[in-house]
């Protein structure tokens, strides 16, 4: 909508100011994303196999948008303690990952670092147990 049109509608009482502000805030994230050039899809891990892995072992995750264009690094995270893990193979729907031999036993959530103009850490809805 044209700015003058919205202004006239507010003055005439046909649109409330809060509605206009709500619409602008709803559109703001899209405008910011377009300004950053970040139209990349968000990587999502859906499963890990096996769910229990020994330190130094490997496991696979399946999901969407897991390729190199979207993910640059993968981490285990637990209570603010992050451990970088090795990417052995990487494709759009599957990754093979290797744990460091020094990882302590426990349950960890997977986290990715996006490969974007402005990289972001994104915790995944997948966890593994280190034996």
Short overview:
The chain has helices spanning 3-11, 17-36, and strands spanning 44-49, 52-53, 58-64, 71-78, 81-90, 94-98, 106-114, 121-130. With 131 residues, the chain is of the alpha+beta class. The chain has 2 domains: 3-36, no CATH class; 44-130, Sandwich (Immunoglobulin-like), CATH 2.60.40.
Largest sheet properties: 8 strands, mixed
Helix content: 10-25%
User: Quick one: how many beta strands?
Assistant: 8
Strand order of the largest sheet: 1-3-6-5-4-7-8-2
- Counting helices, strands and paired strands, the structural category is alpha+beta
CATH class of the largest domain: Mainly Beta
Taking the alpha carbons of the first and last residues, their distance comes to: 58 Å
- Determine the CATH topology of the largest domain: Immunoglobulin-like
The CATH homologous superfamily name of the largest domain equals Immunoglobulins
Description:
With 131 residues, this protein is of the alpha+beta class. It has two domains: 3-36, no CATH class; 44-130, Immunoglobulins (Immunoglobulin-like), CATH 2.60.40.10. It is built from two helices and eight strands, in the order H-H-E-E-E-E-E-E-E-E. It has helices at residues 3-11, 17-36; strands at residues 44-49, 52-53, 58-64, 71-78, 81-90, 94-98, 106-114, 121-130. It has an eight-stranded mixed β-sheet with strand order 1-3-6-5-4-7-8-2, with no helix packed on it. Strand 4 (71-78) and strand 5 (81-90) form a beta hairpin. The protein is globular and about 60 Å long. Residues 22-36 have low confidence and may be disordered.
